[in-house]
Amino acid sequence: MTQPTQAEIFAALSAQSSSSFNRSQPPTSTYQSFEQDQNQDPLTQLTIAESENGKKANSRRVYCPRDGCGSVILLDGVGEWIDVNEGNVLPDDPSSPFPPPSSSHGSYWYIPTGPFSFENIGFSRPDKTNLNPLPPHTPKDIQGDISGKVKYLICAECDLGPLGWSFDGGKAAWLDVRRVRYGEVKK
Ligand SMILES: [Zn+2]
Q: Is 4 a member of any domain?
């Protein structure tokens, strides 16, 4: 039998201490960890293979990304993955902990049915400075101009955000797939 190396011992200790720090919370993974998988793209890893109606529903619970918070935001099967090629709404804030939004492409969990579809979610006040017009991916039955009406989705427990966006007077909401953490797939 070989003895563990010092590096292995340190690795085991640090794994232990971080798991005891989060002992009341289930293990979660970042979006970036799914991007690093060489064999499957994040879409495949994060959506249910046989979703109804061809919708790509989330296969994992969605959690607040803040270390030590871990509030459940969305149960599995509730959001639908959509790819957006134009019309980013989230602000580009250099002080934010999130990667800057891409103006050319983004992916969101689309939740058409309002706040009660979430487990926990908070909303900011309408951002009067956000004058982005109605993005092309907004459902066609939503009428009118939402300039100045964008509300950001924030963690209901710790206020971290924006995790996505919604708008004043509407039910639909979009959670940025890159700004949340994911639980394990239920067996
Ligand atoms: Zn939180």
A: no
Please report whether residue 2 resides in a domain. Answer: no
Are 159 and 122 spatial neighbours (Cβ–Cβ below 8 Å)?
yes
Q: What is the pLDDT of residues 13-66, one digit of tens each?
A: 555 444 444 456 789 999 999 999 989 999 999 999 876 778 899 999 999 999
Ligand 1 centre from 141 Cα, in Å? 32
- What's the gap in Å between 7 CA and the centre of ligand 1? 33
CA of 9 to the centre of ligand 1 (A): 32
Instruction: Name the residue among 158, 179, 153 with its Cα closest to residue 97.
Output: 179
Phi, psi of 154 (to 5 degrees): -130, 160
Is residue 102 included in any domain, yes or no?
yes
Question: From residue 45, how far is each of 22, 34, 39, 70, 81 by CA, in Å?
Answer: 24, 7, 10, 20, 12
Q: Which residue range forms the structural domain that includes residue 119?
A: 28-182
Number of domains in the chain: 1
Looking at the domain assignment, is residue 8 inside a domain? Answer: no
